[in-house]
Amino acid sequence: MKLGLILGDQLNENNAIFDHLNQESDVIVMGEVLEEASYVPHHLKKIILIFSAMRHRAERLKEQGWHVHYHSLDLTSSIKSFPDLLEAARSLGDVDEILVAHPGEWRVLDMLKTWSEQRQVPLRVLPDTRFISDLTSFDAWAEGKKQLRMEFFYRLMRQKTGFLMVDGHPVGGVWNLDAENRKRWKGDPPIHPIKPFHPDPITQAVIEQVCAELDGFGSAEGFDYPVTPEQAQEAVSDFVTYRLTAFGDFQDALVDEEDYLFHSRLSAALNVGLLDPMDVCQQAIDAFEAGRAPLNAVEGFVRQIIGWREFIRGIYWRFMPDYATRNTLGHDQPLPEWYWTGETKMRCLARAIDATARNAYAHHIQRLMVTGNFALILGVVPEAICRWYLAVYADAYDWVELPNTLGMVMHADGGVVGSKPYAASGKYIERMGDHCKHCHYSVKETETSQACPFNALYWDFLMRHRDKFEANPRMKMMYRNVDRMDEDRQQAIAARAQWLKTHINTL
Ligand code: FAD
Ligand code: DLZ
């Protein structure tokens, strides 16, 4: 008999294990296990989403006639980890082989392989069909390149998928319309709210159990994520109908009172396999072709999925496991305590963390330019900020969180993901939104006690790391601005930055 192991984020109907299993003789194994639910303080909504989607998937498989060995969370049980789960499943019969789709985390792959070797039970790891590109193709593309840039990988993916292509050329004549996607949102067009999915009895039972038995970050209240493929499809239609049109224009905007703006909130469903990335992109492209959405929106959205999502995953598997411990900039500051509470007078950070705690979600610009940028210019230890991102978002798994945080945000990978750090002062946040109007600090000031902390930390970051970045052509202008300051000003900024670091938990 074979066991088919389905991990909590592998709920896709085309999971490769089904090509190799026999419905009569083989058994599907799924388990809610304490170790996975607690190795970081996951947001309660993330745990609820995973457990509920797993339970729905198990029910569906049973209806289809599969034998499913499902272990629900049970704190009194001796099954606390994936190895415990497999050990228990072995008692179901003579197990010849265990099949699993490639896990999304190096830690889990290593754990399963180690168990299989120790127990002498063959383990077959199959391709992960939640992605468009396989890892061998990514490696073939990456091999021999001095620099890996998303833009070139994206162009290859456009050709491979045929998305937004005509006669071998990009529709509209350019590959990337990002330059059009940086508008500030001033209230028009109105933002259509995210479609909520109210908990059914399965989800309700999960909510009650998770709240009673597990600890985690954030609030379970108002859980409204899609937990089945059908609901996830409704979420896609909702996005394509009501928000895609303005997605491009306001992709980089920050708005004090808006949690989602025109973003899709599809990442959590994509990452557990409730949605197929090709299908999601196709629906956006259909809207473009029918004249219901402009090219800058659709190209921008498709790029995020076939470009960034696939590129990030390729980077993860190419550079793990040593990638996780990189700290090229030698950063050593602890994560401010208020990342866990949102209790800071800096309005942009307070709003981003508050949204995160309520929704297990913050949009990309909050993650990159607010919580991420602040951790970068403060010089937080990469491991500490990575752990935070992995815990607090419903869509967070190591394969996607790590290269985004350690690479894109912290530049701790030495430039594998990005050619320059996304360091920015308060001026950027002021330009992109309205947080600064509501802030305790003054974005116009730098060295004073009232000054926006982003400002001194930004200049201090540039001055501290001059040797690494001043020759970078994309940062020349930043260093010209540093050089315009006289020595007294530079010293005052360094002193203010030092004061901010020593008083960080009071800001
Ligand atoms: P939209 O803005 O609507 O974008 C559409 C889709 O594109 C997303 O659903 C997502 O699947 C994909 N996408 C966009 N950008 C990226 C990217 N940089 N990497 C991978 N996929 C991308 N995304 C995660 O899915 N999980 C994470 O743990 C995660 N951690 C991040 C940490 C940091 C520090 C940063 C800067 C970004 C992170 N992202 C992560 C990427 C991105 O912020 C989220 O995918 C996005 O905010 C999810 O919201 P959305 O579905 O509304 O996205
Ligand atoms: C994130 C997570 C959580 C919270 N709980 C479970 C679980 O109980 N069972 C499970 O199969 N997976 C869970 N996951 C996802 C894993 O931590 C991990 O990210 C995936 O197994 C990687 O493919």
What are the main properties of this structure?
DNA Cyclobutane Dipyrimidine Photolyase, subunit A, domain 3, mainly alpha, globular, Rossmann fold, binds flavin-adenine dinucleotide, 507 residues, binds ligand DLZ, Serine Threonine Protein Phosphatase 5, Tetratricopeptide repeat
Short structural summary:
By secondary structure, this protein is mostly helical.
Q: How would you describe the overall organization of this protein?
A:
This protein folds into 3 domains: 125 residues, HUPs (Rossmann fold, 3-Layer(aba) Sandwich), CATH 3.40.50.620; 135 residues, Serine Threonine Protein Phosphatase 5, Tetratricopeptide repeat (Alpha Horseshoe); 169 residues, DNA Cyclobutane Dipyrimidine Photolyase, subunit A, domain 3. Strands 3-2-1-4-5 form a 5-stranded parallel beta sheet, with helices on both faces. α11 packs antiparallel against α12 and α13 crosses α14. With 507 residues, the protein is mainly alpha-helical. The N and C termini lie far apart (60 Å). It has 21 helices and 7 strands. The chain binds flavin-adenine dinucleotide and ligand DLZ. The site of flavin-adenine dinucleotide has 28 residues, from α10, α12, α14 and α16.
